């Protein structure tokens, strides 16, 4: 069931990614002028935080299989997931302070939709990891961490596309 | 814990730095076709590492491996074509 959900979410984000690339191709100058104002370094820091969270989730599964307590690694994943959301809060606050919002232009509409939709998945992922912390059967940990790795996977594709890639 | 997840994590950190360097932390100069290809390739490899070593896709059925690795390949290819087509 979780694999079906993961495939569905990947399909939705895939459509977003292709739509973003096509919109860029239609207006490369406008997109790249807007993209110059994204926080590339902050986005890179967010990437490091999220992949470290993903590693911690993988460690939790390894520990469970080895008969060790997966709890500390799951807490590490949750804390880093919350830290990732903190970087998004800083990012959004900076944009709003500079008068940039979802209605500014097509680039910023897609920026807020894609990063915001991803952030919602991070929130859901933190909740799921919190649930499996208290119900830490091997099956639950496999299922919950699979969702978290999907969230991680989407970000490592979203970050270069939205923050770095230009013609 | 060591093993594939730890190795993948270290490589992911290094590749994230490489992607930031390729994209330029503050620059707005054109990347060109080679820069676009490098960035797409690095990002695709990061995605494969997450699928293989974090999600343990090797334990899944072949159909899932084909679907997920194929997803990364098709998406990367489409993004590369869309950006390379308008590269200066």
Helix/strand order of chain A: HHHHHH
Number of strands of chain A: 0
Strand residues, percent of chain A = under 5%
Biggest sheet details of chain B: none
CATH architecture name of chain A: Up-down Bundle
What does this structure look like?
The complex is a heterodimer of chains A (167) and B (88). Chain A has 167 residues and is an all-alpha fold. Chain A has one domain (2-164): Up-down Bundle (Four Helix Bundle (Hemerythrin (Met), subunit A)). Chain A is built from six helices and no strands. In chain A, helix 3 runs antiparallel to helix 6. The longest helix of chain A has 29 residues, at 106-134. Chain A is elongated and about 55 Å long. Chain A starts with a helix and ends with a helix. The model of chain A has no long low-confidence stretch (mean pLDDT 96). Chain B has 88 residues and is an all-alpha fold. Chain B has one domain. In chain B, helix 1 runs antiparallel to helix 2 and helix 2 (32-54) runs antiparallel to helix 3. The longest helix of chain B is centred in the middle third of the chain and has 23 residues, at 32-54. Classes of the chains: A mainly alpha (167), B mainly alpha (88). Chains A and B meet through helix 1, helix 2, helix 3 and helix 6 of A and helix 1, helix 2 and helix 3 of B.
Can you tag this structure with a few keywords?
heterodimer; A: 167 residues; mainly alpha; Four Helix Bundle (Hemerythrin (Met), subunit A); 6 helices; elongated; B: 88 residues; 3 helices; Quinol oxidase subunit 3 (chain A); Cyt_c/ubiquinol_Oxase_su3 (chain A); oxidoreductase (chain A); Cyt_c_oxidase_su3-like_sf (chain A); transmembrane helix (chain A)
Blueprint of the fold:
The complex is a heterodimer of chains A (167) and B (88).
Chain A: H1 2-26, H2 28-35, H3 40-65, H4 71-97, H5 106-134, H6 138-164
Chain B: H1 4-23, H2 32-54, H3 62-84
């Amino acid at each position: 069931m979780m694999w079906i959900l993961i495939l569905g979410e990947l399909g939705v984000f895939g459509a977003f990614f292709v739509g973003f690339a096509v919109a860029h191709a239609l207006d490369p100058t406008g997109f790249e002028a807007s993209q110059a104002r994204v926080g590339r370094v902050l986005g890179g820091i967010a990437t490091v935080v999220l992949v470290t969270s993903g590693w911690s989730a993988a460690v939790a599964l390894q520990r469970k299989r080895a008969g060790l307590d997966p709890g500390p690694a799951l807490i590490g994943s949750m804390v880093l997931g919350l830290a990732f959301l903190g970087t998004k809060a800083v990012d959004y606050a900076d944009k709003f302070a500079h008068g940039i919002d979802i209605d500014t232009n097509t680039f910023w509409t897609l920026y807020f939709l894609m990063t915001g939709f991803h952030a919602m998945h991070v929130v859901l992922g933190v909740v799921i990891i919190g649930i499996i912390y208290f119900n830490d059967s091997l099956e639950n940990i496999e299922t919950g961490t699979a969702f978290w790795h999907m969230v991680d996977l989407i970000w490592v594709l979203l970050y270069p596309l939205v923050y770095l890639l230009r013609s | 814990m060591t093993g594939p997840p730890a190795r993948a994590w270290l490589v992911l950190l290094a590749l994230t730095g490489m992607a930031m360097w390729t994209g330029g932390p503050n620059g707005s100069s054109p990347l060109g076709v080679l820069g676009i290809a490098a960035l797409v390739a690095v990002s695709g490899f990061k995605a494969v590492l997450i699928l293989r070593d974090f999600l343990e896709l090797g334990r899944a059925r072949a159909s899932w491996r084909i679907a997920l690795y194929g997803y990364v390949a098709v998406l990367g290819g489409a993004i590369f074509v869309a950006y390379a087509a308008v590269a200066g």
